């Protein structure tokens, strides 16, 4: 005779929640794609390579992403969004703006070292001729870079009002600083294994000397 069930209970066996596992699998695909895009570039990376590195079938990757372009866009969106948040939080810090500007440089360098695949990918995208390697329709991400840097533009403007940051168009100064940080990535052995290395303290001093208001 069947054992009676407690009041309010059903005979169905509870099914485990698969969402954490699905989300973990999606993150694994993103992490792997980020690493491969950074090391091999967009054209040199295929969905099959990503799937094989994860131990998945290509069909499993298509459960999460429509195609390689969609996967690439999400790699950029995930890290780019987080870096934008860190940039905004840093730019709002109190104190002399030139000090905060140097702090922001540390934030960007640290973030790319924490996520070296993304750091390598970023360096590829802004390298001479690099834009030709990536899908043209993803050029919107380059446009969003100015949007993400808007807090730093305001930081520089604040510093100019304080008298701690040199005169000049704040947007132009931010673009110049961003280019300097990108050049630093290219000489960072953590990212590219280059034999030409710039000491972090020397780079911070260079940024400060270049962007501080003349005394």
From TrEMBL:
UniProt keywords, alphabetically: DNA-binding, Transcription, Transcription regulation
Domain spans labelled HTH tetR-type: 23-83
Keyword presence, Transcription: yes
Leader sequence segment: none
UniProt xrefs under InterPro entries: Homeodomain-like_sf, HTH-type_TetR-like_transc_reg, HTH_TetR, Tet_transcr_reg_TetR-rel_C_sf
Residues within the DNA-binding region(s): 46-65
Keyword Transcription carried by entry: yes
Molecular function terms from GO: DNA-binding transcription factor activity; transcription cis-regulatory region binding
Span list, region Disordered: 1-20
Protein known as: Transcriptional regulator, TetR family
Lineage: Bacteria, Bacillati, Actinomycetota, Actinomycetes, Geodermatophilales
């Amino acid at each position: 005779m069947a054992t009676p069930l407690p009041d309010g209970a059903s005979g169905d066996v509870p099914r485990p929640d698969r969402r954490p596992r699905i989300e973990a699998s999606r993150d694994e695909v993103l992490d792997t794609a980020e690493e491969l895009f950074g090391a091999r570039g967009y054209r040199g990376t295929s969905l099959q390579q990503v799937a094989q590195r994860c131990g998945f079938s290509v069909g499993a990757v298509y459960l999460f992403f429509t195609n390689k372009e969609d996967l690439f866009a999400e790699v950029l969106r995930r890290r780019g969004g987080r870096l934008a948040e860190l940039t905004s939080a840093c730019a709002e810090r109190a104190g002399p703006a030139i000090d905060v500007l140097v702090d922001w440089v540390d934030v960007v360098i640290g973030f790319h070292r924490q996520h070296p695949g993304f750091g390598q990918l970023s360096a590829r995208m802004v390298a001479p001729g690099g834009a030709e390697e990536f899908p043209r329709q993803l050029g919107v991400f380059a446009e969003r870079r100015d949007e993400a840097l808007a807090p730093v533009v305001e930081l520089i403007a604040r510093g100019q009002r304080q008298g701690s940051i040199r005169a000049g168009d704040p947007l132009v100064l931010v673009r110049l600083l961003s280019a300097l940080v990108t050049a630093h990535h290219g000489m960072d052995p953590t990212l590219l294994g280059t034999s030409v290395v710039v000491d972090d303290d020397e780079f911070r001093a260079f940024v400060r000397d270049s962007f501080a208001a003349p005394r």
